[in-house]
Backbone:
């Protein structure tokens, strides 16, 4: 184990910074997916809170959370894809960054019960 750690530390690896544009696409997709999910979640809970005598008992089931997260991710991804079609030079890396950002947000929503 020590030898593996030593080799990993001493092995020279080429390091390349990530393009700022890709990080911006990732971040915008992540934030857009999380915001859209939060909006849909609050809208779905509003009816329960208005009718239920104990509003703190209103919750979103795991299945609904996954469905709302995937729907939000799909809408954000499609929006980013359409936006890329109007760019002068379509970059597949931007579309990939949008998809990874939306998927990461969906994973966060489901994993951490957001």
Residues:
């Amino acid at each position: 184990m020590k030898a593996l750690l030593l080799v990993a530390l001493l092995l020279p690896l080429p390091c390349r910074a990530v393009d700022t544009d890709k990080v911006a696409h990732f971040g915008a997709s992540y934030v857009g997916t999380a915001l859209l999910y939060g909006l849909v979640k609050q809208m779905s809970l509003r009816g329960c809170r208005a009718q239920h005598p104990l509003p703190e008992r209103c919750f979103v089931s795991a299945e609904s959370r996954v469905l709302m997260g995937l729907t939000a991710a799909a809408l954000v991804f499609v929006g980013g894809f359409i936006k890329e079609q109007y760019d002068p030079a379509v970059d597949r890396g931007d579309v990939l960054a949008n998809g990874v950002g939306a998927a990461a947000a969906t994973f966060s929503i489901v994993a951490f019960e957001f």
